[in-house]
Design a protein that fits this description.
Helices cover about 25% and strands about 45% of the residues. The protein has about 250 residues and is of the alpha+beta class.
């Protein structure tokens, strides 16, 4: 009887330990954001160069502006996506944008800023997060967080699906995958490299892989990656990164 009681106690304590040490998807994302820069994102100006174009984001207490600067044949094109919508100027002169181009331009600006600032934004109200089965890549342990978006507030690509591999000890996004439907659709898997911290905010580059099997589940891509069955499509490299925090701007 005493042995049975002791065994039951051990099992109960072990089960309790397992439960309290298991993070939810929300907690994992929060820890990942904190690790990458946390509160600094909320009041910062971040600028960088990507594929010859300059980008800048400004955030302060919920007000944001996501910018892109492109040298055009008629002058410098400056696109701004903000709380009030999309605006464009050419050499500082306002330009009316055709309705058919508004979504395309806005999505182009948003997409670059989204990936450059990950994991910031993954705790937005429109983001649905689900912790699925854990996995290992190159013998390192990862949480896997599936992300989908609500139609309201989820943007024009709300039907896209994402999967993030977050290191169980470091709480860094080392890999991610996504499935999109625009332009015929596609599946991508990204491997982060060259991590660096600039003024307290973490940035990475990505090796961008593809598979031609559009029906494949995202949670199978890590296996294909380890077996070297994904094709390297491109590299996502951020250059000339500058981060100005509110204290720097005031001073």
């Amino acid at each position: 009887m005493k042995r049975y009681t002791l065994l039951l106690l051990i099992v109960t304590v072990s089960s309790f330990t397992l439960i309290v040490s298991q993070f939810s998807a929300e907690e994992i994302i929060d820890k990942t954001i904190d690790k990458a820069g946390g509160y600094r994102y909320n009041n910062a100006i971040i600028q960088f160069t990507f594929r010859g174009k300059q980008y800048r984001s400004k955030r302060k207490e919920g007000v944001y502006a996501l910018e892109r600067f492109v040298d055009g044949s008629n002058g410098l094109i400056h696109d701004v996506v903000s709380n009030i919508g999309l605006e464009r100027t050419i050499d500082n002169c306002p330009v009316k944008i055709a309705d058919s181009l508004i979504t395309k331009i806005s999505d182009g600006v948003n997409s670059v800023h989204y990936f450059a600032n990950l994991p910031y934004g993954l705790n937005a109200p429109a983001v649905h997060k689900e912790l699925i089965e854990e996995s290992t890549i190159n013998q390192k342990p990862y949480y896997r967080i599936k992300v989908t978006f609500a139609q309201e507030g989820g943007g024009t690509d709300f039907e896209d699906e994402f999967l993030y591999w977050i290191h169980k000890d470091d709480f860094t996004i080392d890999y991610l995958a996504y499935k999109y439907s625009v332009n015929g659709g596609g599946v991508r898997f990204r491997e982060a490299y060259n991590p660096r911290v600039i003024n307290g905010i973490r940035f990475v580059n990505y090796k961008n892989y593809k598979t031609d099997d559009l029906k494949i589940s995202l949670d199978k891509l890590d296996e294909l990656f380890e077996k070297k069955q994904l094709k390297l499509l491109s590299k996502i490299e951020l250059e000339d990164i500058y981060v100005y925090l509110e204290k720097d701007i005031i001073n």
